[in-house]
Amino acid sequence: MNTPPPHLPSRGFQGLLPPDQWDELLRAGVSSPLRGGNLLLSQGFQTGVVYALRSGRVRVVHTEPGGKEALIAVRGPGDLLGEYAYQDHGEHMASVWALEPCEVTALSSARFEDFIRRHRCEELLQRYILGKIRQGGQRIWRAANLQTEQRVALLFLEVIGAARVGADPTIPMTQGQVADSLGVALSSVTLVLGQWRRHGLIRTLPAPLRVLDMAALARHANPR
Q1: Which CATH architecture has domain 14-140?
Q2: d(Cα 181, Cα 209) in Å, to the nearest integer?
Q3: What class, spelled out in words, does domain 147-221 have in CATH?
C-alpha cells in the first residue's frame, strides 16, 4: 500500500517569529485591502516586492503555455508571498489570486532584506521556504495515488486550514476552480459534491460552499 511522504504542515512565517517581530515586519510595509477574485502577483513578472498576508486566503497557481492552471498552494494569514522571487531576484513562478477579501502588507525587497538581516532570520526563512517545497511534493503524490473524492476532501481541509483560527469552515471556490485545482473533470467534482450535499456534509447555497460536518470530511480525506 502506498503511503504519502512525511510532512509537517507549515503554520506560516508568522508562526516562526516572536509576535513582536511579525508586528514589526508589518509596520515596515504598506498595508492595503485586496478584493476577492483580484490578482495580487502575476506569473513571469518581477516586482521587487514581498507580501505578508494579514487576513484572508489566496490561491497560488501556475499557468501553462496553453492556459491550463495548476494549483500550487492555498495560503492564509501569516504567510509570505513573493519570497521565492526575492531569494533569486527572478520572476514570480506563479500568480496569486484572492479567494476572498484579504489584507496584505507590501514590503520592498530592500526593507524585507533589512528585516531578515537585523533579526538574523535567514535560517527561519529557508525553513519556511523548504516547508512550502515539501507541500508541493505532497500535492504531486496525491495526484498520482488518490481518487477524486479523497483529493477533494484533502483540498477542502487545506482551504479551511488556511483560514484564520475560529473562522467558519467555508470554501470560497467555484466548482470549476476546484476541478481545475485538482486537474480533474468538472463532472467528477460535481458528482462528489452532489453526494456530499445529499448526505448533509456540505451546503452549496448560498455561496460560499460551507462544510457542515468536519468529522465526515476528515473521514473522506483519510479513509480506512
Answers
A1: Sandwich (2.60)
A2: 16
A3: mainly alpha
Which residue bears the cell 500535492? 139
Q: What is the pLDDT of residue 1?
A: 36
- Tell me the DSSP string of 81-146: ESHHHHHHT---SSEEEESS-EEEEEEEHHHHHHHHHHTT-HHHHHHHHHHHHHHHHHHHHHHHH-
Tell me the Cα Rg of the chain. Answer: 18
What parts of the chain have a pLDDT lower than 50? 1-10
| Sign (positive or negative) of CA dihedral 32, 71, 47, 110 | positive
- The answer to whether 160 and 154 are in contact (CB under 8 A) is no
User: What residues does each domain of the chain span?
Assistant: 14-140, 147-221
Residue 222 CA to its chain's centroid (Å): 20
Q: Are 148 and 195 in contact (CB under 8 A)?
A: no
Taking the C-alpha atoms of residue 160 and residue 186, their distance in angstroms, rounded to an integer, is 21
Q: Can you give the pTM of this predicted structure?
A: 0.90
